[in-house]
Amino acid sequence: MTGYGKATALIGTRRYTAELRSLNGKQLDLSVRLPSAYRSKEMDLRKRLGDAIGRGKCDLTLQYVVEGVEPRELNKPLIAAYLSDLRDVSNAQGFPDTDNALLAMAMRLPDVIQQPREDVDEEEWVQIEQLVDEAVAQFNRFREEEGQSLKSDFHARVENIVALQEEIGPLIKVRVERIRERIQSNFEEIQDRGRLDENRFEQEVLFYIEKLDVSEELVRLEAHCNHFVEVLNQGVGQGKKLGFIAQEMGREINTLGSKANDADMQRIVVRMKDELEKIKEQVLNAL
């Protein structure tokens, strides 16, 4: 299920931002991006997120910007190496050996000023965990809102399929009469009416009608629709089960189409398939 959550907080001299987003996925595929100082906390954070998210292709990004003054230190060994190299070049070219000018030049070179080596501040990390929890809470609220919308859509689609199924009932009787008339017409074309064995004719009609009978498919389809709604009302964590039920609904609708042998019934089956495809697409969004 898609989701999005974002939270910010000022912790010390840094403003941290935790951003969590997800796309549809059958399993949990979690990507975590943290400042280098907190890499040792990644596994704990992954477990924390896994329990809260469930499944989906999810990305967590934790980053910060400095809003205050942070200590810096000179990289003295690097500065000394820069000065030595600059002095060698200056002497080789016959330039005046001015240490102040060389030092000014060395201070403009990369990495001469650096941040002190950071260790994990446990008190600060507790605040960061709270920040991530806030992002997760927003993320789940986003999912809940989308879930309610999906639930309403599922109900509407299933009701449409049930309504279309009810339209098939009257067509079945009409179809039987059409089959009877067509078979009788075919018999009359190939032989004299006087030679027609009425008992044999009735047997052939019954065999043909029984072969095209869809009553069992209609009963099973109705049961699957009812089961889908029951599972839908059971709460979260039913996405995979809903997907399985939708597959069973599809099997019955496909069988209806193969047995229809009637243009009006085929049109209804096509509309059923359209509703079911929309259900299958949206089931991927359900947890």
* First-to-last CA distance: 6 Å
Structural class by sheet pairing and helices: alpha+beta
Note the beta-strand portion. 5-15%
Question: Into how many domains do the coordinates divide?
Answer: 3
Shape: elongated
Mean pLDDT: 81
Radius of gyration: 36 Å
Number of helices: 8
Q: What's the total count of β strands?
A: 6
> H/E order of the elements?
EEEHEEHHEHHHHH
Major beta sheet summary = 4 strands, mixed
How would you describe the overall organization of this protein?
There is one protein chain. The strands form two sheets. This protein has a four-stranded mixed β-sheet with strand order 1-2-4-3. 63% of the residues lie in helices and 14% in strands. The protein starts with a strand and ends with a helix. The model has no long low-confidence stretch (mean pLDDT 81). The protein is α+β, with helices and mostly antiparallel strands and 287 residues long. Helix 4 (122-190) runs antiparallel to helix 6 and helix 7 packs antiparallel against helix 8. The radius of gyration is 36 Å and the shape is elongated. The chain has three domains: 3-70 and 122-144, Ribosomal Protein S5, domain 2, CATH 3.30.230; 73-114, no CATH class; 147-283, no CATH class. The protein contains eight helices and six strands.
